Amino acid sequence: MPGHRITDQQIRLFMSKRKDHLQVTAASKAGISERSARRIESGQRQLGPSKPRNYRTRTDPLELVWDPVVLPLLQLSDTITPVGVFDYLCEEYSDVFAVTLRRTLERRIQKWRQINGQDKEVIFRQVKEFGQLGIMDFTWADFIVTIRGTTLKHRFFNYRLPASGWSYVQVVYGGESFVAVATGLQNAFEQSNGVPQEVRTDSLSAAYKNHSNETLFTAFFKTVVA
């Protein structure tokens, strides 16, 4: 009626009465005006959104087997398949489990594993192209080398091609100097019969210099890899 909000119950009643009565009659029986009835039939006035329910409308068909049987199986093995669980229930619990519940069981297992299953390993695959990249660095052995009782101070210059796994190692006497970098790279290029499009390394003191917190190539290093 004018001045009163139309309830969802009135709309349902009008729609029910409208099946067998004229619009004006159905509106009168639902307690609404003809104008409101026209708005309902034209789609301008619809039922409000239904509230989400947090309860079951029917008995859980897996209630007798889920907690006592299925959950222990899933917790015991991460590799057991829904089909395997289904076959086991059919053989051992046919008195309380119906074969028609296969899809229900599979959906329940899938949902449980999405929430409670083990985390899957995330892999970021890298595409490595031949001739694209070379990497280099200095390293050292985890043991001491002596010559006639005197410790040999040395380290290794290591150059590697990630795409093929080819590697070149050269002994360096002393520290990380420009000479060691230049000699190691030149020998590595000769041994690999080529120069990659890009050479990467960490912040070697011989190859980089710090200036205003920015890492810049030294002019000497540029001449080697150019």
CA distance, first residue to last residue: 87 Å
Low-confidence stretches: 210-214
- How many domains would you count in the coordinates? 3
> Which sheet architecture does the biggest sheet show?
4 strands, mixed
Overall average pLDDT: 82
Return Rg in Å: 38 Å
Strand order of the largest sheet: 5-4-1-6
- Judged by helices, strands and strand pairing, the structural class is alpha+beta
Number of helices: 8
| Order of helix and strand elements from N to C terminus | HHHHHHEEEEEHEEEH
List the helices and strands and how they pair.
Blueprint: H1 8-18, H2 23-30, H3 34-42, H4 66-76, H5 82-92, H6 102-116, E1 133-139, E2 146-147, E3 150-151, E4 154-161, E5 166-173, H7 178-192, E6 198-200, E7 208-211, E8 214-217, H8 219-225
Parallel strand pairs: 1-6
Antiparallel strand pairs: 1-4, 2-3, 4-5, 7-8
Helix pairs in contact: 1-2, 2-3, 7-8
Task: Characterize the structure shown.
It is a single chain. This protein is 38% helix and 17% strand. The protein has eight helices and eight strands. The strands form three sheets. Strands 5-4-1-6 form a four-stranded mixed β-sheet, with helices on one face. A two-stranded antiparallel sheet has the order 2-3. The longest helix has 15 residues, at 102-116. The chain starts with 7 loop residues before the first helix and ends with a helix.
Features:
single chain, 226 residues, alpha+beta, 3 domains, four-stranded mixed beta sheet, two-stranded antiparallel sheet, 38% helix, elongated, Putative transposase
